[in-house]
Amino acid sequence: MKQSMKVGVVLLGALTIAMWFGISSVTKKKEVLTDQFNQLEAQMIEKESAFEDMLGLYDKVEDQISDILEKENLIQHQGNDRLDRRNNERIFKEISMIDDLIFRSKQDLKKLEDDAKSANLKLGVFEKRINGLQAELSERADVISTLKAELSKKDETLAMMISQQDSLNVTINAQLNDLEQRALEVQQLTAQNSELNKSFLAIGTFEDLESKGVVAKEGGFLGIFGKRVALQEEADTKAFMTVDRRNMQKLRIEAASLSLVSSHPQGSYQIVPGETESEKVLEITDPEAFWKVSKYLVISKKI
Fold first, then answer.
1. For the chain, what are the domain ranges?
2. Looking at the domain 39-195, which fold is it?
3. How far is CA 98 from CA 73, 202, 218, in A?
4. How many CB atoms neighbour CB 177 within 10 A?
5. pLDDT-based confidence at 172, cuts 50/70/90?
6. Which of 26, 57, 240, 298 is deepest in the core (most CB within 10 A)?
7. What b/e sequence results for 89-103 when a residue is b if at least 16 CB atoms lie within 10 Å of its CB, and e otherwise?
8. How many Cβ atoms from other residues are within 10 Å of residue 108's Cβ?
9. Is 32 left (phi over 0), alpha (psi -120 to 50) or beta?
């Protein structure tokens, strides 16, 4: 009877443990699914906001092209009248405004294309509409160019004004293209520099780090060569925070004690007390040496 009771107690204990692990597993899966849902929701909101901005810019370009067409008709009507000084000034003013509208519309369309690419939106129909605006804008530019030539033949003064304006536009466009090219080069260099200085940070108790697959049971660390490492290929990359090592001179961490799991040369850092008893500070005193061995920084803490 006693033996039967012992067996029952053991079975009950085993069942309790199994249930605990089962509940724990379900809880973890639920947390993962919740995180994934929140991330998807945030991405959808971000894309929706980007699309609304693009629609606003599209409408703006559409309005500008309508203004161009309206001014074209006005110039053609005025061009049929006798060209005197007063009429020439009115026509030239409208031409200048059209040139400005064409220039701004080209810039807006370029931004529209860039925004669509950066937002990673697959909008086949919308892209066709953008292409349609580009074609219409190109047609308007051709029409105004022809109109300028016709008006220049009618009046020498107006011809000189148009020629000077066109020369100025060419100079401005060349300067802007040069600035855009330089800005692109700076952007590329900045991106390359940021990539070179990109590092990965993970902070937690040893148990937390181990559960995320960052630290192996052997005590090795993911991605560190020259150590006895059990590579955790299935480790979740979300366990690491992407950081810029140039901004990592000091790390203030709430912990009773800290230790570095990742390999970094002695003398390239120090761990000192923080402002409170529950705070420790990692100071990287020699960044070049500190990051030379690994671009990963893994900190195990005890609370």
1. 39-195, 198-302
2. Glutathione S-transferase Yfyf (Class Pi); Chain A, domain 2 (1.20.1050)
3. 11, 57, 72
4. 10
5. confident
6. 298
7. eebbebbeebbebbe
8. 17
9. alpha
